[in-house]
Amino acid sequence: STSLPEYFVVPSSLADQDLKLYSYSFIGRRMPLWSWNHPNGSALVRMANIKDVLQQRRIDQRICNAITRSHPLRSDVYKSDLDKCLPNIQEIQSAHTKLKQLCVNEPFDESEEKWLSSLENTRWLEYIR
């Protein structure tokens, strides 16, 4: 994948040949990417959707099993579809543009109440929260 870093962490129980094979199943070949960990062993792993819905369950299960086997406490994987609960990049860019317009182009001589409601309407604060 041209959008992934040159080096990244993968579960030790996932063989290189499996990793290469599975990468073709993900949109943009964006394999699961370890992004963050906690001292208790919890980790945040991001991944793109799997293209083939017929293979999705099998590939997803194999990767989740590899992550579980690599976890110090062998904890199960908790999955969350962030597409459903987070804004996409276009929504974030739109909110940022609205925020810039509000801060640069809007005169501040209007009442603060109107300015604060305009700020809220940009949704920028909601997104960065």
Automatic annotation (TrEMBL):
Residues 1-129 form the Myotubularin phosphatase domain. GO terms for cellular component: cytoplasm; membrane. Belongs to the protein-tyrosine phosphatase family. Non-receptor class myotubularin subfamily. It comes from Polioptila caerulea (Blue-grey gnatcatcher). InterPro entries: Myotubularin, Myotubularin-like_Pase_dom, Prot-tyrosine_phosphatase-like. The lineage of its organism: Eukaryota, Metazoa, Chordata, Craniata, Vertebrata. Transmembrane segments: none annotated. This is MTMRA protein. It comes from the Eukaryota. GO terms for biological process: phosphatidylinositol dephosphorylation. Substrate binds at N88, I89.
